[in-house]
Amino acid sequence: MGCIVSNLRCIVCTFLASTSGVFRMAESSGGSSFMYMSADNVKGLILALSSSLFIGASFIVKKKGLKKAGASGIRAGVGGYSYLHEPLWWAGMITMIVGEVANFTAYAFAPAILVTPLGALSIIVSAVLAHIMLKEKLHILGILGCILCVVGSTTIVLHAPQEREIDSVKDVWNLALEPAFLLYSISVISLALVLIFHFVSRYGNTHVMVYIGICSLMGSLSVMSCKALGIALKLTFEGMNQLIYPETWVFAMVVVMCVVTQMNYLNKALDTFNTAVVSPIYYVMFTSFTILASVIMFKVFGLFWAFQWPQVLNPFKRFIFL
Predict the structure, then answer these.
(1) Which residues contact 58 (CB under 8 A, 6 or more apart)?
(2) Are 110 and 45 spatial neighbours (Cβ–Cβ below 8 Å)?
(3) Which pTM value belongs to this model?
(4) DSSP readout, 219-286?
(5) pLDDT tens-digit readout, 267-292
(6) What's 138's DSSP letter?
(7) How would you label 63-92 residue by residue, b for 16+ Cβ within 10 Å and e otherwise?
(8) Which residue of 29, 32, 83, 91 shows the fewest CB atoms closer than 10 Å?
(9) Which among 22, 26, 48, 78 has a CA at the least distance from the CA of 267?
């Protein structure tokens, strides 16, 4: 028990030490333009970190609500919705909404490739709380997984490329209509439908990847739409009204549909499997698909790989050496 707690404490310290390096980097105006974080990026970073705290805690509160509701009604894992009458589940839902609002706002200030990986902190929060409140044991491989998530997330954040300037929601709409992203969107929706109609009934209650796969696939589209909606609201508050464009409302509808789908299958996953299993797998898959979608839509990695791949590999070289 003491060993696990001390290891979790090390994970938290590693994450905080790594992210403090980001702030020091932001305060320095020297160095290459790729390593400098703008004021907007720092705002997005702070919002994303606070979002992770709320979202990590919400997993635990919702899990306790689902368990309580399942004891007196039909469990979510078998298609029940009795949790909608459980106040504890709603408390978790409100906590998640607060976190998602902070996350949504972060996308208006910083690139998705910087914001999304910071969800690693939510894994640490949920792992610690699950161990304390749900009595779900965190084994050594789980601790190692948390550390690897933190290392990977910190590496991405430290070397996140600068985002292209967006002057209107129509610019994002044009990017979304490019053949590469259209192909990605069609592939994601098709794969999600196959999982929903073919695999959920057969393997949903035995393979965590089914529910999490649906959440992650739809999540990548919701993040891109959130990014567009966040930019639209940011420009609107700056005096350039984007609410008059129909594209803004299309992105809003996509967000609603994707989020409702995510919530439905995330509840099923939490009700069926341990939080310590659901949270990290969801984070890794969600982050991977979001980064892929961001690369395809915003084309942010062209110059990044050309100039910064040696710096990205350095931490891994030191890790292997140690």
Answers:
(1) 92, 93, 95, 96, 99
(2) yes
(3) 0.66
(4) HHHHHHHHHHHHHHHHHHHTT---TTSHHHHHHHHHHHHHHHHHHHHHHHHHHHS-HHHHHHHHHHHH
(5) 888 888 887 778 778 878 888 898 88
(6) -
(7) bbbbbbbbeeeebbbeebebbeebebbeeb
(8) 29
(9) 78
Closest CA to 180 of 318, 71, 293, 260: 293
Rg (CA), the chain: 20
Structure tokens at 135: 């009595």
Whole-number pLDDT of residue 4: 47
DSSP 38: P
One-letter amino acid identity for 99? Answer: G
Cβ proximity of 22 and 7 under 8 Å:
no
Output the six-digit token pair for 23.
Answer: 């702030």
Q: Residue 116 has what DSSP assignment?
A: G
Contact by Cβ (8 Å): 86, 63: no
Q: What is the DSSP letter of 31?
A: S
Q: What is the DSSP letter of 76?
A: G
Contact 138, 126 (CB under 8 A): no
User: Tokens at residue 24, please?
Assistant: 């020091």
176: nearest Cα among 247, 257, 279, 74: 247
Round to the nearest angstrom and report the end-to-end CA distance of the chain: 27
Q: Amino acid letter at 20? A: S
Confidence of residue 119 (pLDDT cuts 50, 70, 90): confident
Please, are residues 8 and 128 in contact by the beta-carbon 8 Å criterion? Answer: yes
**CA 173 to centroid of chain Cα atoms:** 22
User: Quick one: angle between helices 208-237 and 275-298, nearest 10?
Assistant: 50
